[in-house]
Every structure is written in structure tokens, then in C-alpha cells.
């Protein structure tokens, strides 16, 4: 019964990798990638995402656990016997073969004689029909990337693995290739497992994202779910930006938890709190910068009742076209980030102005206070730079 | 079957190690036979253990003299070839000039020429000029054939050097001479050192060209050659073993220093 | 030392540098080039011309030599010494093939499988260079001695019967036979094969192996279709670095061979240094040079190294 429903899923059970020198790259890990999905492994460098990918590809032998492709266990199969193909980081195109032969390589290895038609079709799919007889070094980065995709896809793998496939491209080309890869995935319907450190890339392309940190999966879910309901500080900080405030649980009133932070009170829906919230215990309260409204202190009376509020003073503001980003000093959090859409700009909101920050309690999330409040902040910043 | 699988997986390693032992076997023999006490004039068959030769390495007439001469020639040849070769390498990589192709071939040809051809033609020249064969003709010949190797070694290093480093130095107010001394030369130094080491090894061990152009002067390789006809003293093996050990120690020391430097950098 | 030889590896295809940067001080390059090039012109190029002229001279030591455009010397020396020429080429070719077969696994081992032993093995490959090669060649006299274990083993296994039938050895002996000479040549020039091979293998991006495996190539296919083609520059310069000096060598033939294994180098040496027949020696040396240059050119063209990245 179990076996029939998992016809094409990638299943990792208790898989881990410890190197000879004692370094554990991947902690025992269970992960199922549903057939036909676009799955992203997201994390900073060294988090174990590439090792996980290489264990699926067969380029790395797991220290424990099993890898299943559908019904078939492939844990100890060498890469050349697995129905899996990889788009390598910086592509690994064979420099001595032309584009056509690069794409035909896998077919020829499997003893297929007439490859011309398939290769031509594949090159058309990635819009490189004209370049078939060029050598890899004669192509641009974006073109090489498409050759790498074509070379892998032509084998109709059960799973296509992509190891930072867009890392070597410039920003504009990267955006373009993200859409292109998404289009190809929809067209061929093959499961894609994509490793990246770029959170925007993961969120744009993938149906499901697994955020990895220190060899473990911190959280797994759809991009919106991860963004709206992060369950750890790492996820909250690594995906986008979060304002985290340390608060004390005051009371529970029905579905909601009432918290004390500084002098004020904040309300958090109990369902959005991933930490045990007992009265007197600590919780980290999180709120995304774009969810917050900014009102000048003089107009504080106009703020509707029932919203969470915090008072503070604007420290910096930077205008970036569609929005303005403010950094607000407040008693509960030294650098509160607020992104305000530039719809009706209030000219009084300049550095030094006293303001009230307020947001709907429904947008608040609660995290376990027993973690590093800054986890994922620096790594995210470094990688994005 | 596990043995067959093991064999299959390690076939390359086994074959490689066999080759390595083929390479090292003569050195082992040389070392072992430096402790031999041969019966006749030739040291090819094992008789009995003895440390006589090690106690008296210079006990053979003319051998240590020829060794000294070889070292002297190698040092001067290295110096000459390194200076001339480094200059050429810099000119080739850093400047544009006419007849580049011709210069490149003139440097490439000595490396693609059998030694005996160069040796014979150089001797023709010396005979025609009526030059006295000896130290100077050997030195001239050694500088000639070491030169190309130095050029190649230094050129490889200078070519892999980012020209922006020199531009950066100039941007930071270094004049041409200072740029060269403080940036270019230090970065090129490993290449120059490599070229010099290679030149030293080539010169010190050269036999064919020296044999043609030495007249009656005897370098160490020529001494060994002569002794292969007259009788091989055990001391030859002592020198051979000592050279091997010194070389290994040198390389090991260099490697350890290099490693330590890298670690400090990291 | 590793860097020494790495640098030594690529030179065998004359290269053209991609447009070097223009600089001020237009005479500087000429001053830098002048001393070294003069040296090469006077002591390398000029001697070639002298030798060419010597080869068409006639006369004798007592009366002196004159250029008489006596090209017959070429023909005479070819007809007289063609067996030695043939031997030089075939011994050198055999040694080159053996070097490739023996050297490739070791170079591959150092490049991909040695791990932390890499440096040590590298030292062991290079270190013998520092012991005079004549001493090491003489050691082969001991190794291949008639009463030694190697000959004994080959005899017991009846290998010598086969090699004698092929004409490589004579009776119960290995010394003073073609096999001994080829063995010595192989030994002497093996590092010249290993180092360029290693350099070009080491340059191969490990991910290409993974990519080949990912695309259904078994290890052996990966080697044939990816590793070996990408190591071609090393194979070409390695074979050249082995073949050229081996073809001109006379040390191994003299120390390990007999009068029946004399190579062209031996003849040139004897003519020049003992018989003092300079025109014949010069002509032989010229023929050897021309033959090797021709073979090298054809080989480089055929192997199509310029087509490789």
C-alpha cells in the first residue's frame, strides 16, 4: 500500500553524512520530495544542502540512512546507474566536446545510436539550436547554463538536481533564467531539486522550500508558509527580514496570548506561536517590516483599537522608489525596521520624529525565546552581497 | 568476489605503486651497494657488508675534485641562465616587440633538440674558433641549454600573474622600478626559484653535452662514465646516496616551510 | 620542486601569447632580450650553421677541411648507418610507449587518488633526478645481472624464451640485449612522462568526472571519453619529452647494451670524439635532427593539440 502511492517520490530516510575528519555535514534527515514538484534546499554555505543533493545524485555515499527513488532503493548505486541527473555548479561542461556532443553524452553512454533528433529538440527547447557545433568556452554564461540543463534533461531523469545553477550569472540574467527554469519544469513535469543560498530565488521558483541550517532542516513548507509562519529565528531572519522582540507572557485570553513588552502589551494569536506560552514565560514576538504601519505621534488617536502598538523615534529613513524604509528606535527593540509603501507620504515622518508603530495582531508570530535572536541574520546578509 | 572487486577498485593504485617502485629500485640498489666490499674493480655484485667507503668518501683519486668542479660549474651556470632567462621571460610576457615568433622558436628549439646534436654542433663551433676546451666551454654550453628551461619556468609564473596587481601598485604611487622590486619580483620569485633549481639539476647531472665539450676536464658525471670502463669504486654509490638524501631533505624542508606559510596566511 | 617540473611540462608546443600589454619605454624589451638571445644565437644557432657547413666538407685532419658541397656524405652515412638509425627510432618508440603505459597510472594516482600522500609520492618521483643518472643507470647492471633474481625469475617463468624468440634478449642474458637498453631508456625518461601527464590530469575539473558519472558513463568510459581526451596535452608533451632525448641517447646503449645495440648517438659520439671524422659525424647529427623535427611536427599536427582547450 505504501509503495504504490510513492511512485516517483524522492525519499530520504534517516540519511546523514559524516566525513572522515569527523565533520558532520548532514545530521540524520528525513525528507520526501513529491513527484513533479519543484523543491528547493535553501541555506547558507556549509549548511549541508549540497551534500544532501550529492547523496541523492550518488556522488556522495551517506554515512547512514537510505535514498529511495519511487520504489527503488538507490542508496548504494553509483551515479551512472541512477535515473537522476545533475546540473552542476558552474556547469562542468566537457571542454573538449562541442555543445551537441555534450548534450548527447548521456544518450550515447546508454547505447542510443540515433541521437540527432532528440539532441536537436532539446537544444531547441533551451533555444540553442544555432550553437550546436560550438565549444563550451565560446558561449556566454547564460548559454552554458542552458546547455547544462539540456544535457541533464535529455536523459528524462526521474529527478533533476540543480546545484546552485544560477550562482555564476549576473543579477539580470539570473532573474531571466529563474523564469526559464520554471517554464522548463512546467513543460517537462520532472521533479526538480534545487540547491541555492538565495532566498529570493528559492521563493520565486520552488513549490516547497526546505530551509537548512547546521546540517538539519529547520523548516519545510511552501514559500508563503515559511515567510508568514517562520517557526525558528533562523528562518525568520534568513527569509526576508523580521523584527524580533523579547516579551513576557502575561495572560491567555481565549485564542490569543497577551504579552508584555517594555511598558506596553502585545497580542499574539495562539495558533501562530510555535513556542509553549505559559504565563511568566518568555517568547520572541516577530513581525515583518512591511506589515507595520507608521503614524506620527500627534495622530496617535486615529489608530484603530485592537492593533498592537509600539512607540518610538525614527532613526533613519531611506527612499527607494516603491517604498520607504525606516529604522525606528524604540524601548523594546533598538532597530525596528518598517517598510512603508509610498502611497500617501506623510511629510512629518523624518528622522527624529516621534512615531507609533502599529500592526494587526493576526500578522504577529511567536517563537521560542530560547534561541539566538540573531540566527540567520549575518549569513543571509553575506550571501546576498 | 570481494577480492576481485577490491582489485578492480584499486587497480590504478596498484599499477601506480608498481611504477613507483620501478623508479626507486635503482636508488635502493645504489644505497645498498654503497655498503658493499667488492672483490674486483667493479661494484656490481654483492660481496660483504662494509662501511669503508662511507668512512673515506674521497678515497678515490680525482673523484671529489670532479665533484667540486661539477658543483662550481652548476652554480655559475645556474646564475647565468637564471639572470638571462628571467630577463627574456619578462620581455616575452610583459612587452610587445617585433619578431616575437622567432624569439619563441629560438627558445623552444634547444628543448626539442636531442642533446647529442647540440653537443656535436657546439663542438664544431669551438673547434672552428680554435677555442681551448675546458671549464669555460662547459660553462658556456650549460648556460645555453639551461636558458630555455628557465625562460619557460619563469614565463609560466609571470603569465599567471594578474597584471592588475602591477596597475594597482602604480595607482598607489609606485614608480616602474619600485613596482618591479616590490610587486612583480616577489610574486615571480617562486617561478624564478623553480627555474634556478631546474637549471642546477640539469647542469650538475649533464653528461652528453659536457662529454663533447670538456676536452680533458673531468666533471663528476664524466668521472662516473670513465669509471664504468675502468672500474667503479664504491665511493660513487656513497656520493649517489648522499645526493639522494640531501635532495629529499631539501624538498621536505621546503615543503614544510611552505605549508607553515600557507597556514599562517589562512 | 613540483613547480619546477610543472612549469617544464607545457613547453613542447611553441606557443603564441595572447596580446601582451603595451607599455612605455619601447627599447626596454630589446635590452631585456639581447644578452640571452645573443647567447642562444652564438652558441645554439650559429653552431648549427657550422655543423651544416662541416657536413659538406671534405678533407682530412692533417690537411684540413674545405667546403666542397660534398652532399654524398649524407648518402654514405645513411647507407652505412641505417641500422643504427632504425634502432634509435625503434628503441625510443618502445621506451616511449612503455613510459606512457607505466607513467599514466602513477600520474593518475598522484592526481586523483593519492590524497595526503600526494606530496610524498611527488618527491619520490623527482628525487632520483638528484642522483647522477649515470650512477642510477649503472645500478641496472646489478639489477639485471646474469645471476641476479630478476633474470632468475624471468628464466623460471620462461619469459626469456619468449623474448629471445622475439630477438629482445639473448639466451639466458638480459644485460647487453635490446631489452636492457629499452629498460634503461624507459627508466631514465619516465619522470619526463609522468610530470606533464600529472600537470594536465591535475588541471581537470573533478566535477567533469562527476558529470560523466551522472550521465551514465561507467568509470572506464569516463576515462576513455573524458579523462584521457582532456589529458592529451600531457600525453603529447610527455611522449615528446621522452622520445626526443631517448632517440639521441647513447648512454644506455653503451652501459647496458652491446655492439649489437649501438644507437645513432653512439655512432655520432664515436665519429666525433674517437675517429674524428667530422663531416660524417656532422651529417649524421644533421640527419638525426631533421628526422626528429619532422616527426615532432607531424606528431603535433596529427594529435591536434591546438584543438584542445
TrEMBL record, chain B:
<protein>
    <submittedName>
        <fullName>ABC transporter permease</fullName>
    </submittedName>
</protein>
<dbReference type="InterPro" id="IPR035906">
    <property type="entry name" value="MetI-like_sf"/>
</dbReference>
<dbReference type="InterPro" id="IPR000515">
    <property type="entry name" value="MetI-like"/>
</dbReference>
<feature type="transmembrane region" description="Helical">
    <location>
        <begin position="234"/>
        <end position="257"/>
    </location>
</feature>
<dbReference type="InterPro" id="IPR051789">
    <property type="entry name" value="Bact_Polyamine_Transport"/>
</dbReference>
<dbReference type="Pfam" id="PF00528">
    <property type="entry name" value="BPD_transp_1"/>
</dbReference>
<feature type="transmembrane region" description="Helical">
    <location>
        <begin position="183"/>
        <end position="204"/>
    </location>
</feature>
<feature type="transmembrane region" description="Helical">
    <location>
        <begin position="133"/>
        <end position="154"/>
    </location>
</feature>
<keyword id="KW-0812">Transmembrane</keyword>
<feature type="transmembrane region" description="Helical">
    <location>
        <begin position="105"/>
        <end position="127"/>
    </location>
</feature>
<keyword id="KW-0472">Membrane</keyword>
<keyword id="KW-1003">Cell membrane</keyword>
<dbReference type="GO" id="GO:0055085">
    <property type="term" value="P:transmembrane transport"/>
</dbReference>
<dbReference type="GO" id="GO:0005886">
    <property type="term" value="C:plasma membrane"/>
</dbReference>
<keyword id="KW-1133">Transmembrane helix</keyword>
<comment type="similarity">
    <text>Belongs to the binding-protein-dependent transport system permease family. CysTW subfamily.</text>
</comment>
<feature type="transmembrane region" description="Helical">
    <location>
        <begin position="73"/>
        <end position="93"/>
    </location>
</feature>
<feature type="transmembrane region" description="Helical">
    <location>
        <begin position="12"/>
        <end position="35"/>
    </location>
</feature>
<feature type="domain" description="ABC transmembrane type-1">
    <location>
        <begin position="67"/>
        <end position="257"/>
    </location>
</feature>
<keyword id="KW-0813">Transport</keyword>
UniProtKB/TrEMBL annotation, chain C:
<keyword id="KW-1133">Transmembrane helix</keyword>
<feature type="region of interest" description="Disordered">
    <location>
        <begin position="1"/>
        <end position="21"/>
    </location>
</feature>
<dbReference type="InterPro" id="IPR035906">
    <property type="entry name" value="MetI-like_sf"/>
</dbReference>
<dbReference type="Pfam" id="PF00528">
    <property type="entry name" value="BPD_transp_1"/>
</dbReference>
<feature type="transmembrane region" description="Helical">
    <location>
        <begin position="175"/>
        <end position="198"/>
    </location>
</feature>
<feature type="transmembrane region" description="Helical">
    <location>
        <begin position="91"/>
        <end position="112"/>
    </location>
</feature>
<keyword id="KW-0472">Membrane</keyword>
<protein>
    <submittedName>
        <fullName>ABC transporter permease</fullName>
    </submittedName>
</protein>
<dbReference type="GO" id="GO:0055085">
    <property type="term" value="P:transmembrane transport"/>
</dbReference>
<feature type="domain" description="ABC transmembrane type-1">
    <location>
        <begin position="85"/>
        <end position="299"/>
    </location>
</feature>
<keyword id="KW-0813">Transport</keyword>
<feature type="transmembrane region" description="Helical">
    <location>
        <begin position="28"/>
        <end position="50"/>
    </location>
</feature>
<feature type="transmembrane region" description="Helical">
    <location>
        <begin position="119"/>
        <end position="139"/>
    </location>
</feature>
<dbReference type="GO" id="GO:0005886">
    <property type="term" value="C:plasma membrane"/>
</dbReference>
<comment type="similarity">
    <text>Belongs to the binding-protein-dependent transport system permease family. CysTW subfamily.</text>
</comment>
<dbReference type="InterPro" id="IPR000515">
    <property type="entry name" value="MetI-like"/>
</dbReference>
<keyword id="KW-1003">Cell membrane</keyword>
<feature type="transmembrane region" description="Helical">
    <location>
        <begin position="281"/>
        <end position="300"/>
    </location>
</feature>
<keyword id="KW-0812">Transmembrane</keyword>
Amino acid at each position: 500500500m505504501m509503495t504504490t502511492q510513492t511512485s516517483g517520490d524522492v525519499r530520504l530516510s534517516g540519511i546523514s553524512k559524516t566525513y572522515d575528519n569527523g565533520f558532520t555535514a548532514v545530521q540524520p534527515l528525513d525528507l520526501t520530495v513529491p513527484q513533479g514538484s519543484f523543491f528547493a534546499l535553501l541555506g547558507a554555505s556549509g549548511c549541508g544542502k549540497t551534500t544532501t543533493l550529492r547523496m541523492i545524485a550518488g556522488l556522495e555515499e551517506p554515512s547512514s540512512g537510505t535514498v529511495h527513488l519511487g520504489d527503488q532503493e538507490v542508496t548504494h548505486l553509483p551515479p551512472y546507474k541512477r535515473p537522476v541527473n545533475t546540473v552542476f555548479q558552474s556547469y562542468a561542461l566537457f571542454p573538449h566536446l562541442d555543445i551537441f556532443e555534450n548534450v548527447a553524452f548521456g544518450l550515447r553512454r546508454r547505447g542510443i545510436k540515433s541521437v540527432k533528433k532528440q539532441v536537436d529538440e532539446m537544444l531547441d527547447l533551451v533555444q540553442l539550436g544555432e550553437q550546436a557545433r560550438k565549444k563550451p568556452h565560446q558561449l556566454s554564461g547564460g548559454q552554458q547554463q542552458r546547455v547544462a540543463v539540456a544535457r541533464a534533461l535529455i536523459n528524462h531523469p526521474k529527478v533533476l538536481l540543480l546545484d546552485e545553477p544560477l550562482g555564476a550569472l549576473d543579477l539580470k540574467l539570473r532573474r531571466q533564467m529563474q523564469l526559464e527554469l520554471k517554464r522548463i519544469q512546467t513543460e517537462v513535469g520532472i521533479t526538480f531539486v534545487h540547491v541555492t543560498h538565495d532566498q529570493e530565488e528559492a521563493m520565486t521558483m520552488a513549490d516547497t522550500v526546505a530551509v537548512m541550517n547546521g546540517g538539519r532542516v529547520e523548516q519545510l513548507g511552501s514559500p508563503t508558509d515559511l515567510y508568514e509562519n517562520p517557526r525558528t529565528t533562523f528562518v525568520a531572519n534568513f527569509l526576508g527580514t523580521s523584527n524580533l522582540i523579547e516579551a513576557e507572557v502575561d495572560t491567555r485570553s481565549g485564542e490569543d496570548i497577551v504579552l508584555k513588552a517594555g511598558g506596553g502589551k502585545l497580542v499574539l494569536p495562539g495558533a501562530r506561536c510555535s513556542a509553549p506560552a505559559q504565563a511568566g514565560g518568555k517568547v520572541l514576538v516577530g513581525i515583518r517590516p512591511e506589515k507595520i504601519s507608521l503614524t506620527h505621534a500627534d495622530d496617535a488617536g486615529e489608530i484603530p483599537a485592537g492593533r498592537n502598538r509600539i512607540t518610538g523615534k525614527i532613526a533613519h529613513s531611506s527612499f527607494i522608489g516603491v517604498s520607504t524604509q525606516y529604522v525606528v528606535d524604540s524601548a523594546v527593540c533598538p532597530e525596528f525596521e518598517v517598510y512603508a509603501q509610498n502611497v500617501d507620504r506623510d511629510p512629518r515622518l523624518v528622522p527624529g520624529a516621534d512615531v507609533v508603530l502599529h500592526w494587526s495582531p493576526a500578522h504577529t508570530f511567536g517563537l521560542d525565546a530560547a534561541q539566538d535572536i540573531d540566527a540567520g541574520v549575518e549569513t543571509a546578509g553575506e550571501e546576498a552581497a | 568476489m570481494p577480492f576481485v572487486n577490491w582489485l578492480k577498485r584499486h587497480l590504478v593504485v596498484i599499477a601506480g605503486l608498481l611504477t613507483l617502485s620501478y623508479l626507486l629500485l635503482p636508488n635502493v640498489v645504489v644505497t645498498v651497494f654503497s655498503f658493499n666490499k667488492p672483490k674486483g674493480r667493479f661494484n656490481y655484485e654483492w660481496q660483504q657488508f662494509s662501511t669503508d667507503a662511507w668512512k673515506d668518501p674521497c678515497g678515490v683519486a680525482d673523484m671529489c675534485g670532479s665533484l667540486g668542479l661539477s658543483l662550481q660549474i652548476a652554480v655559475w651556470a645556474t646564475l647565468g641562465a637564471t639572470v638571462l632567462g628571467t630577463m627574456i621571460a619578462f620581455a616575452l610576457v610583459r612587452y610587445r616587440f617585433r619578431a616575437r615568433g622567432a624569439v619563441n622558436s629560438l627558445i623552444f628549439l634547444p628543448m626539442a633538440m636531442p642533446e647529442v646534436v647540440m653537443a656535436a654542433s657546439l663542438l664544431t663551433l669551438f673547434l672552428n674558433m680554435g677555442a681551448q676546451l675546458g671549464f669555460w666551454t662547459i660553462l658556456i654550453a650549460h648556460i645555453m641549454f639551461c636558458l630555455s628551461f628557465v625562460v619557460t619556468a619563469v614565463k609560466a609564473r609571470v603569465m599567471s600573474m594578474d597584471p592588475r596587481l602591477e596597475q594597482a601598485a602604480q595607482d598607489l604611487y609606485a614608480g616602474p622600478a619600485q613596482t618591479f622590486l616590490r610587486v612583480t619580483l616577489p610574486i615571480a620569485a617562486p617561478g624564478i626559484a623553480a627555474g634556478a633549481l631546474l637549471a642546477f639539476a640539469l647542469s650538475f647531472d649533464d653528461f652528453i653535452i659536457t662529454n663533447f665539450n670538456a676536452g680533458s676536464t673531468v666533471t663528476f658525471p664524466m668521472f662516473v662514465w670513465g669509471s664504468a670502463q675502468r672500474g667503479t669504486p664504491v665511493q660513487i654509490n656513497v656520493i649517489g646516496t648522499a645526493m639522494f638524501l640531501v635532495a629529499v631533505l631539501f624538498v621536505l624542508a621546503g615543503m614544510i616551510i611552505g605549508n607553515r606559510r600557507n597556514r599562517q596566511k589562512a | 620542486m613540483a613547480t619546477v617540473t610543472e612549469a617544464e611540462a607545457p613547453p613542447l608546443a611553441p606557443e603564441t601569447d595572447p596580446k601582451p600589454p603595451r607599455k612605455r619605454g619601447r627599447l626596454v624589451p630589446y635590452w631585456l632580450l639581447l644578452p640571452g638571445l645573443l647567447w642562444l644565437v652564438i652558441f645554439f644557432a650559429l653552431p648549427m650553421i657550422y655543423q651544416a657547413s662541416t657536413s659538406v666538407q671534405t678533407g682530412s685532419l692533417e690537411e684540413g677541411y674545405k667546403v666542397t658541397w660534398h652532399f654524398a656524405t649524407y648518402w654514405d652515412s645513411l647507407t652505412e648507418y641505417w641500422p643504427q638509425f632504425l634502432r634509435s627510432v625503434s628503441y625510443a618508440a618502445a621506451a616511449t610507449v612503455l613510459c606512457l603505459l607505466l607513467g599514466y597510472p602513477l600520474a593518475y594516482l598522484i592526481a586523483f587518488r593519492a590524497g595526503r600522500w600526494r606530496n610524498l609520492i611527488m618527491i619520490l618521483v623527482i628525487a632520483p633526478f638528484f642522483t647522477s643518472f649515470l650512477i642510477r643507470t649503472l645500478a641496472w647492471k646489478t639489477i639485471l645481472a646474469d645471476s641476479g633474481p630478476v633474470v632468475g625469475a624471468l628464466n623460471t617463468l620462461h619469459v626469456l624464451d619468449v623474448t629471445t624468440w622475439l630477438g629482445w634478449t639473448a639466451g639466458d642474458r638480459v644485460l647487453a640485449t635490446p631489452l636492457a637498453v629499452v629498460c634503461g631508456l624507459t627508466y631514465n625518461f619516465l619522470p619526463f612522462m609522468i610530470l606533464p601527464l600529472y600537470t594536465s590530469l591535475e588541471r581537470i575539473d573533478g566535477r567533469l568526472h562527476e558529470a560523466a558519472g551522472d550521465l551514465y558513463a561507467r568509470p572506464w568510459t569516463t576515462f576513455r571519453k573524458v579523462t584521457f581526451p582532456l589529458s592529451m596535452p600531457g600525453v603529447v608533451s610527455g611522449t615528446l619529452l621522452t622520445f626526443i632525448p631517448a632517440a639521441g641517447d647513447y648512454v644506455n646503449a653503451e652501459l647496458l647494451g652491446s655492439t649489437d645495440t649501438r644507437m645513432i648517438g653512439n655512432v655520432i659520439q664515436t665519429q666525433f670524439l674517437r675517429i674524428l671524422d667530422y663531416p660524417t659525424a656532422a651529417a649524421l647529427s644533421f640527419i638525426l635532427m631533421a628526422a626528429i623535427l619532422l616527426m615532432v611536427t607531424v606528431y603535433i599536427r596529427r594529435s591536434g593539440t591546438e584543438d584542445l582547450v
